[in-house]
Amino acid sequence: MRKFGIVLKYELREYFTSKGFMMLTFVIAFLGAVLLFLPRFIDMSDFTGVQVVGKEEEQEETSEGDVTKFAYIDLTETGVLQEELLQQMIPGIDWHRMNSIEELKQGVEEDYDAGFAVTGPTEYDYYVFNKSMTDSNTAMFDEIMKQMYRVNYCAANGLDLNEIAEMYNVPITVNEQILNKDSGSNYWYCYVLVIIVFMLIVYYGQMIAVSVTNEKSNRAIEVLVTSTTPNSLLFGKVIAGAIGGLFQMGFILGAVLISYSVNREQWGGMLDMFLHIPAEVLLAFAFFGLGGYLFYAFLYGAMGALVSKTEDISKTISGLMLVIMVVYFFSLMQLMNVDGPIIKVLSFLPISSYSTMFARIAMGTVAPWEIIISFLILAASIFGAGVLGAKIYRMGTLRYGNPISLTKALKDLKKSE
After folding, report:
1. What is the pLDDT of residues 348-374, one digit of tens each?
2. Closest by Cα among 389, 242, 394 to 317
3. Are the C-beta atoms of residues 413 and 392 closer than 8 Å to each other?
């Protein structure tokens, strides 16, 4: 235990005295906090929908100088368009009647945002100089044409348009009573948390594998194993990486969540889908995310001991990376069906429960006994991965030359036992 404590202390010192590690942590946390405080100092009402006090007059002046201008011409014999209704239906748009198609085209080319030439009661030509991908002018004018058609039809047949409109547009009141979880609202922050824990496992897992391989390549491992045990070395590295990863991710995530909580009103709640995360979900994320990290970190450490050169690491960990990637994509795809059989099975497997169980807690129906059993399976798997990883690490640390395959390492372990 004393030797483990020495290794753990040394590895932690490596993390927390690293300028790059600490600088990256504080810079990302600072930038995230600054971005979330922006609505307090900059008028972002066009984006957030929340008007900053004292900016109303400035916004009105800006909007007056940025008016949309449309040209139109009615080529029908009876006259489909009614100019006074046109101005009332779409306020804030400057409509200009043209006398000919040529004048309308020239206007669109020189000054107007778009042009409309009505050729029949339900037909028109649309003119635009450069059509953008977000152009919705035709959808807007379609509604104008439909309304004009209704007005003219009712006038010709002696019908009351207001009475008909009231019948078709009767308001419906719905009061939602969600008895368990709102999956639609919780989907996006679960999506983000799955990505975060995936990045945590891959980033820190590879760091552990590289650290082990570096010690072999510079022969430092030969000195280390004489002063401590391989078990202490592997467990010290993995636990230190877990603490470092938790500190970095917790500091950044905490800074972002607290900053959003303070400025939630200024954002109008528009980021709730990403950053308004319930405490029970964060707690499940912390336990299962940490468990998943430890499970894979022990395996990454063992993989690093199987090679003698850092350039061989990618080949050795490719199988492990494939498992992680498959689990990652399956987890994301199954977020739309968290009560389905596939994600239920994945939430009990140690290779995937680190992401699927807290997703079920956030979005689906999960019994307390399921959470307990899933975590116990994960904890037992962490212990198993630690024991197996330590044995492979012990066997591989003093083997040099060509990389050792995992299959051969397992066979050698079986023979030695």
Report:
1. 999 999 888 888 888 888 889 999 999
2. 389
3. yes
Could you tell me which of 93, 91, 92, 152 has the C-alpha nearest to residue 118? 152
Task: Tell me the three state secondary structure of residue 333.
Answer: helix
CA–CA separation, 127 vs 104, rounded Å?
Answer: 8
CA distance 44 to 250: 28
Cα distance between the two ends of the chain: 24
Angle, to 10 degrees, between the axis of helix 137-157 and the axis of helix 161-168? 130
Per-residue pLDDT reduced to its tens digit, 218-238: 555 555 555 667 677 778 878
Residue ranges with strand state E in 290-386: none
Residues in contact with 224: Cβ distance below 8 Å, sequence separation at least 6, in sequence order: 215, 233
Q: Scanning the structure block, which residue is given the tokens 């009351």?
A: 160
Query: Rounded to the nearest 5°, which phi and psi values hold at 125?
Result: -105, 140
CA dist 147 and 155 (Å) reads: 12
For the record, the structure tokens of 196 come out as 């975060």
